Records
---
Amino acid sequence: MTYILYIAAALAEIAGCFSFWAWWRLEKSPLWLLPGLASLAAFGFLLALVEANAAGRAYAAYGGIYIAASLCWLWLVEGVRPDRWDLAGATLCIAGASVILLAPRGA
């Protein structure tokens, strides 16, 4: 369930940030900012749902998922296919996030 929450949070964050990118850099209507703000609020809510004993650990693990989701966005929304270096980096980040999430911790 944690990975699903992270993926949903990443998509919400990327969509929210992209709305600002589209408004500022692509000269889209300022109306793009309204769903963007809602998406960023959803991101914060979804990330807060993650089961973790410390916010910093939840955020650190989320970072790896965010990187992989950003490359999916790059490909699916922006039409730019990630190269092998992008994929290698994302794989390393997912591995790091998994270590943080799945490491056995004492009580």
Note: Residues 69 and 81 are 13 Å apart (CA to CA).
---
Amino acid sequence: MDLITLLLFIPACFALNMSPGPNNLLAMSNAKRYGFRSAFFAGLGRLTAFTGMIILTATGLAVILHTSEAVFMVIKIGGAGYLFWLAYKLWTSDPSEDETVRSDDKSLLSLAQQEFFLAAGNPKAILIFTAFLPQFVNLDGQTNLQFFELGLAFILLEGIAIAVYALFGLYLRQWFSQPHTRQLFNRSCAALLATAGAGLLLARR
């Protein structure tokens, strides 16, 4: 995988990882209730679900990408459009909405299961792996290896996001709950996603 692809992928991917979705809000809530360690290890349930999705995506789409360049371009353009749509949703989201996630007292295994099922049932996560990852794959190289590299990078960045949101839950929840700071955060993520989408549309394969 070339350096330019990685420079496009990493910031866009991290913006997706850091966007305040249900799993990240759950990690923040768990950290406030049970502490950083419990929230972080509960996030392993989320990573397990995402790993399974990445494997299924890689095995299914690798064959298609090898046989049809037209399908690849459709996925590429659709994925860039998805980035723009996410950027728009984040930019225009209402910062005054409070999306607190509640959870009762549970064991670490129960918290991990909750993260797993929340991630597995999230349609946005499915779209990320079917529309986002494939557009960074170079058909001239080994597609399976590239999917592995992209998937590993995504999982590592997702682990960082879990840790960051757990820290938010411990120390910065009050700051993050303020509408103007939430808006700044959302728009920063939106700018990264839109920039990556534009870069992908302009870049040559």
Note: Residues 79 and 128 are 8 Å apart (CA to CA).
---
Amino acid sequence: MLQAVLFADVTNSTKLYETIGDDEAKRLVDACLEILRDVTAFFGGRVVKTLGDEVMCVFSSADAAAEASCEMQNRLSEDELANKHGLSIRIGFHVGHLIEDHGDVFGDAVNTASRITSLAKGGQTITTETAAAAMSSDLRDLTRSMGRFAVRGKAESIAICEVVWQAENLTMISDRLPMTLPPPTISLRLVYQGGSLTLTPEDEAVVIGRERSCRIRLSVPCASRTHARVEFRRDKFVLSDTSTNGTFVQADGEKEVALKREEFILHGNGRICLGHRLSEGGADLVWSVKTYQ
């Protein structure tokens, strides 16, 4: 059965933390995310996970995702505090067959939705022509073709539409999306016993574990066969735990965090332990994120 997967990302939140402080910024971002959760539930969707300032949702149909996306944009545009601090959301969604595992979802539809979201601007919702074709006629009339665009990880360009959610957006503005993605500005280096690996935004996800098929294979007693994965998602590298015993991470200067089927944004420098704490045997991998011009 086809389902719709939607990503909604709060924009300008990084600047917010710098201008009004961590505590107040977090309260404001959390309030925005709560609006997104409420709208998702109202349209019969499910929030699969929240990562920092974004949510990933699943809906039963393209119609439900389209209606929810319009309501999300409207609700945020009418929120006084969000407007005061320049916050908005960018949304992308796609339809396809999803693979579900322990409450999470995977598959090409998820990857496509995530990657087209990175092309949207604040206050903009985009989808694929495939998703638009799956909508009922009245909702399909709210979409405007924006042409074909190169998307990271796809051999062929993807036909994209904008979902018009307010009257002043009826005129298509085709130059709001780049024809090609900008060059990478970030890289991740993983160092482990037996080697090292450097990832850029163009690279596919890396699986870590004891299985021979894992790109990073580590013989750690507490590790699962496929223990974790690292991927670039929009503007950040994300570590996802897929194990039985959990993954423990510690960024420099921060407390150790235990992940159980959860995700962690890799930033700065830090250490990763598979199925055990850092104090119980040392790090299995060391990471370093580098930003460059």
Note: Residues 13 and 275 are 33 Å apart (CA to CA).
---
Amino acid sequence: MTKTDRINKALEASFKGSEISVVDDSESHRGHAGFAEGGESHFQIKIVWKGFETLSLIARHRAVHEALGKDLLNEIHALALELTSE
């Protein structure tokens, strides 16, 4: 299972009923710190989920980090997050 698949699976389990987009943006970081040949080092994640309505931006980010877990986060160099309730 790819890292992208693992990310999707973890997010879908935690944010039921949401719209989730996970894009491997690693190639655009070629030559930069953290780039890994073969990709899956830099990701753009967009989640639209009603549950974010009452959460601050930092609480939304923490929820995503918790959903992914420490082990998976340690395998990712960079995450760009767009987290909205609508």
Note: The helical segments are 3-14, 57-73.
